[in-house]
Specification:
Structural class: alpha+beta
Membrane topology: Multi-pass membrane protein
Protein name: ABC3 transporter permease C-terminal domain-containing protein
Helix content: 40-55%
Organism: Phytoactinopolyspora halophila
Subcellular location: Cell membrane
Keywords: Cell membrane, Membrane, Transmembrane, Transmembrane helix
Low-confidence stretches: 312-316
Length: 764
């Protein structure tokens, strides 16, 4: 039976070989795409595992003095728009642990850099001595990816004790960053949305040679073959192309993996080896693809098994009914109920699996209802007297399943992309608020958490000599309590602070304490004083030891004659400015932990970073741009993810559309040839083929877009942001789907001339 099935598979000569080749290639594309999709989660886990060593320290741990450990501190530096991870290390003991990627800990003044940072240093000399003398490169097993900018610098153990945390053993297993709210919900639904068109595509390609196979097997059935034998032959014939496509698909996956690794996400590009679907993923593909192809062939063979005359006589299939719409209505109501009975965090978190399953059911229900809508479109078209509309309408009404199958992938894509368009602004609004960053453009904030007074003075002197930098000013930081919240207090020369921070409307000449207008409650108290806490004592204290009880960390200031300044919105802006004389004798017992300065060029800013980080390894140098990038990183990640997912889904839909158009042309080459021989003009046949795709696609795209808007509305509602639906952009997926489909169909139209040649009218 196996040998007979193999012979029948290629019994049609070049046409059969061509169909088998196209089917095999289509299965290969579907397999490769499926493997790439299943590689996403393992790739993120692999990246998390490689960078887990950077988060190994236990904040509550106090290492024993007799134990060997490594003091570690991680800060983020920047060069222009590039983020650089800077890890300061110092070993304590003879067997201090060494992180992956390097053979030994760098000594004080030395630095080991990633290959990407080494390349950047060659192009940017200002980075050359920022971290120390470069003595080597970090291996790939410690990097997020080939673009990871990483510096591991050595510092003295005394210096490291001030800001470093002890590590007895570096972790090798990390946790993938869990996205929150609307973003996480979109990622959950996007994963399902990506797999659904791939599954539809794999099922569709098994129909590529269905017409000729059905005729052959129907003839065998009429000759006496049993239904079981016919099914076995179909199984063998289908699995030949499926198995060949599976093998080629795995090869295509490994070939395309280096290209796919260039897709940036979160930490930049991937290492090609990251894109590995794991053993479970390979099992799913190796078992699932043949299973889908075999199942699709058996479903398509049902007519042959029941009665071969139904195939030989081309009898109509069982008509589709309105009952197909019921599951779609139930799925929409069920998903809507699920999305409106909880927050976005709940829906994507504890109920994430249920949400994903409900969305998958919705996609399946839309696929089930599609032929009914297609049949309705066909019946409307048959009322026309125009030949092309009449022919296309008869085709769609007689075989609505095939009509929908041609555009099903694009329709699912329209639903998915419409949902993305509807929810992206809500996700962005939940993650980004431009008012959060109050730091002014052209200012630099330098945080010096462990620098001594003398070291800070030296840093200020060096900054004053940097060309393009003005007004470097020290600031003593504190907090003041207002009810349950604490507000930021800056202590320093008021005029200098205003100039360096580019603040407006601060009446420095009116009082020694200036309070923001929205914090008047600070001065509305009977005692007339405000208590400041979290002050930094003059001598830095190691974060692994308890502070000295004699060191001052609190103080009070009188606010009887406080002046009022405009509130400066932003988490990095002060609510209170206090002049030094308001603290009196307390100030010499404190140290400044913040430097403010203005810069006038990018080169000046980079010089500031180099000056500061060369002297203070734990310093944080921030600008409005870098702070804003930190707050909007999740938003950029959202847009990148959704863009990649949309392109991938459209790619799958395009492959499915090409296969569907090919199937339609091959299955109807004889009817089209007979119509042409009977006098039907060639342009009419081309318009017929065009309308068969355009008409159901237009109607179904509108339905899919409405479903996408409804789901998007539910998601936005769960996120608590009803006003963010971008109504002006919701038609873009529909228009993109129409243009995309019409382009593919238009490319196929010239083939109508060849498939309607006279020789196609022969009956054998």
């Amino acid at each position: 039976m196996i040998r007979l099935g193999m012979r029948l598979a290629v019994a049609g000569g070049r046409t059969a070989w061509g169909l088998a080749a196209v089917t095999t290639a289509a299965v290969a594309v579907g397999t490769a795409l499926l493997l790439l999709a299943l590689s996403a989660v393992p790739a993120m886990q692999a990246r998390a595992d490689r960078t887990a060593w950077m988060d190994s320290y236990d904040w509550a741990k106090e290492a024993d003095d007799s134990e060997s450990y490594t003091l570690v501190d991680v800060v983020e530096d920047n060069y222009h728009q590039a983020d650089i991870d800077v890890v300061s290390m110092a070993g304590v003991g003879t067997d201090a642990p060494v992180p992956p990627g390097i053979d030994s800990l760098p000594r004080e003044g030395e630095v080991v850099v990633s290959p990407a940072l080494a390349e950047l240093m060659m192009r940017a000399p200002v980075l050359g001595d920022r971290y120390g003398d470069v003595v080597g490169e970090v291996g790939d097993d410690a990097l997020a990816g080939p673009d990871h900018l990483l510096a591991i610098r050595g510092v003295s153990s005394d210096e490291a004790r001030l800001f470093g945390l002890p590590v007895v053993e570096f972790d090798h297993h990390g946790e993938v960053v869990q996205l929150e709210g609307v973003l996480r919900l979109l990622i959950v639904l996007g994963g399902v949305a990506l797999l659904a068109p791939i599954a539809l595509f794999v099922a569709m390609i098994t129909r590529l040679s269905a017409a000729s196979r059905d005729r052959r097997l129907a003839a065998l059935r009429l000759a006496g073959a049993t239904a079981r034998q016919v099914r076995q032959l179909a199984m063998v014939e289908t699995l030949i192309a499926g198995a060949g496509g599976l093998v080629l698909g795995v090869g295509l996956f490994f070939t395309a993996r280096p290209l796919a690794a260039h897709i940036t996400y979160d930490g930049g590009r991937w290492f090609p080896t990251d894109l590995d679907p794991s053993v479970a993923g390979y099992i799913i593909v190796v078992v699932g693809v043949p299973a889908v192809t075999a199942t699709a062939s058996q479903v398509a063979l049902a007519r042959v098994a029941r009665s071969p005359l139904m195939v030989s006589r081309r009898a109509d299939r069982k008509p589709v009914t309105a009952y197909r719409v019921i599951p779609l209505a139930v799925a929409v109501l069920g998903l809507g109920l699920l999305l409106t009975t909880g927050t976005a965090q709940d829906i994507a978190g504890s109920r994430g699996e249920i949400t994903a399953a409900a969305f998958l059911i919705l996609l399946l229900a839309l696929t089930l209802a599609g032929p009914w809508f297609t049949r309705g479109v066909g019946l409307l078209m048959t009322r026309s007297s125009k030949p092309a509309l009449l022919l296309a309408g008869r085709r769609l009404s007689n075989d609505p399943r095939a009509g929908f199958r041609a555009v099903g992938g694009v329709i699912l894509t329209v639903l998915i992309t419409t949902m993305f368009v509807a929810t992206t602004p809500a996700a962005a609004a939940s993650l980004r608020d431009t008012e959060v960053i109050g730091q002014r453009t052209g200012t630099v904030h330098v945080s010096l958490p462990t620098s001594t007074i003398a070291e800070t003075e030296v840093t200020i002197d060096e900054l004053e000599s940097v060309d393009g930098v003005d007004s470097p000013t020290p600031v003593y930081e504190a907090l003041a309590q207002t009810g349950q919240d604490a507000v930021k207090v800056w202590i320093g020369d008021c005029s200098a602070v205003v100039a360096a921070g580019r603040l407006d409307g601060v009446p420095c000449d009116q009082a020694s304490v200036i309070v923001a207008d929205d914090q008047r409650e600070l001065i509305d108290n009977p005692d007339g004083v405000v208590e400041l806490h979290s002050l930094s004592p003059a001598t830095p204290v190691s974060n692994t030891t308890a502070p000295d009880e004699d060191q001052i960390e609190t103080a009070t200031v009188r606010v009887d004659d406080a002046a009022i300044m405009p509130s400066h919105e932003g988490v990095d802006m002060p609510a209170v400015i206090v002049t030094p004389d308001a603290l009196g004798s307390v100030l010499p017992q404190l140290r400044p932990t913040l430097l403010l300065a203005r810069y006038h060029s990018v080169d000046a800013l980079e010089a500031v970073r180099t000056t500061v980080l060369r002297r203070a390894p734990d310093a944080d140098v921030s600008t409005r741009e870098t702070s804003y990038e930190g707050f909007s990183g999740s938003v950029r990640q959202l847009y990148q993810t959704l863009t990649i997912a949309t392109v991938a889904v459209f790619l799958v839909a395009g492959c499915g559309l090409i296969v569907a158009v090919t199937i339609g042309l091959l299955e109807r080459r004889r009817p089209f040839a007979l119509l042409r021989a009977a006098g039907t003009p060639l342009p009419t046949l081309r318009r017929t083929l065009f309308l068969e795709a355009a008409a159901p696609l237009t109607v179904m795209s509108v339905i899919s877009a409405l479903l996408g808007i409804i789901i998007g509305h539910f998601i936005v509602d769960a996120g608590g942001n009803l006003a963010s639906l971008p109504w002006g952009h919701l038609l873009l997926p529909v228009l993109a789907g129409l243009v995309f489909t019409m382009t593919v169909v238009g490319i196929a139209l010239p083939a109508v001339n060849k498939i309607t040649a006279v020789e196609q009218t022969r009956f054998e």
